[in-house]
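Reminder to self: tokens first, then the designed residues, so the page reads top to bottom the way the pipeline ran.
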């Protein structure tokens, strides 16, 4: 039973008190300065209690506290090897500290029980107005969703106010992956020393991510059948783990140039207890910063400019040029969906000759 009654406080102020019993049988009450506000709350709280989703403000926690509990859970996952890398944990912590809990902009002091879609929309808008990029804002909202989902798992919340909140793109034009020219890649490979050349060839023709190249083992290279099997990767802290996603586990076909480069490299490759194909000089896990330094010096030598990741874009562009299907390219690249492949590389696929097709349609009709 939920009721509204008029009260005169000791101070002489008139207030309207809503009395009700929650789903656990505990008596609750709340004061409002206007009868209209009390009526609105009464309708809302009746629905929440009936659906067993009422949560009192006094039993709630702030977004900042909920985020801390979630980050502690992520740290446990990281320490126990449950699909949480140190670099990912560090990124999550930065998003919470710099955006969700940011003074003035963030909502760290907001009770999660009071959080509504409007609050999350306003957070999104404040992030954008204060110079955060679309990508960064989208990631910050995604982290908030994870925080609130964890609070739901812990029984501290019943609905996630961040679900369904979108960051609308400023342009309908999709981002196009930068693809180096064949001349630039050829110049880099020709100018590279014999120890660095295999790194370039495998990356530019196999499309491996930098972390996958650093984690590649000789046992994952099938010289007989001509495949490179991606089964692990090295993260930013030189910790070995699984590929980025389930789609990251894949088999990439390798041509004669890649296989021959690997055969020659294997003869002088530093010995590695981990059996790595591209280890550090002393046999450990190769730091990506070392590869980047060598790559920058090589670019300066041949007067080209690109990122290491652009070698992966180049590999995908060759697959498209060769006529592989979208499904095959998605698989070779380790993308989780065809949509991801098309968003990055859709502009590289050849356009059909629509004019010729329409001429054939007319010819069939008119002869």
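Designed residues (367 positions):
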């Amino acid at each position: 039973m939920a009721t509204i009654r008029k009260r005169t406080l000791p101070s002489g102020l008139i207030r309207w008190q809503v009395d009700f019993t929650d789903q656990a049988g505990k008596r609750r009450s709340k004061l409002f300065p206007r009868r209209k506000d009390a009526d609105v709350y009464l309708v809302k709280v009746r629905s929440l209690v009936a659906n067993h989703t009422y949560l009192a403000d006094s039993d709630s926690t702030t977004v900042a506290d909920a985020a801390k509990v979630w980050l502690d859970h992520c740290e446990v996952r990281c320490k126990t090897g449950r699909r949480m890398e140190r670099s990912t944990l560090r990124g999550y912590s930065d998003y919470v500290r710099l955006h969700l809990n940011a003074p003035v902009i963030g909502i760290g002091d907001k009770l999660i029980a009071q959080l509504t879609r409007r609050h999350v929309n306003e957070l999104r808008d404040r992030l954008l107005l204060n110079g955060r990029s679309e990508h960064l804002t989208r990631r910050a909202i995604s982290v908030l969703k994870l925080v609130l989902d964890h609070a739901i798992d812990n029984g501290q919340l019943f609905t996630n106010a961040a679900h369904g909140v979108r960051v609308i793109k400023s342009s309908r034009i999709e981002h196009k992956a930068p693809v180096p020219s064949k001349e630039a890649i050829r110049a880099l490979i020709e100018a590279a020393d014999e120890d660095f050349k295999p790194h370039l060839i495998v990356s530019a023709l196999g499309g491996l991510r930098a972390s996958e190249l650093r984690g590649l083992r000789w046992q994952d290279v099938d010289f007989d059948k001509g495949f490179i099997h991606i089964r692990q990767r090295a993260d930013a802290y030189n910790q070995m783990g699984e590929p980025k996603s389930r789609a990251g586990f894949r088999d990439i076909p390798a041509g004669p140039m890649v296989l021959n480069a690997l055969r020659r490299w294997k003869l002088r490759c530093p010995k590695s207890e981990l059996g790595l194909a591209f280890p550090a000089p002393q046999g450990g896990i190769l730091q990506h910063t070392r590869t980047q330094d060598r790559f920058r010096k090589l670019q300066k030598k041949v007067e080209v400019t690109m990122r290491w990741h652009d070698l992966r874009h180049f590999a995908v562009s060759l697959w498209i040029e060769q006529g592989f299907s979208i499904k095959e390219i998605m698989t070779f690249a380790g993308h989780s969906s065809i949509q991801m492949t098309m968003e990055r590389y859709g502009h590289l696929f050849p356009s059909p000759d629509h004019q010729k097709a329409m001429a054939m349609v007319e010819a069939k009709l008119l002869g």
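The CA atoms of residues 319 and 328 lie 9 Å apart.
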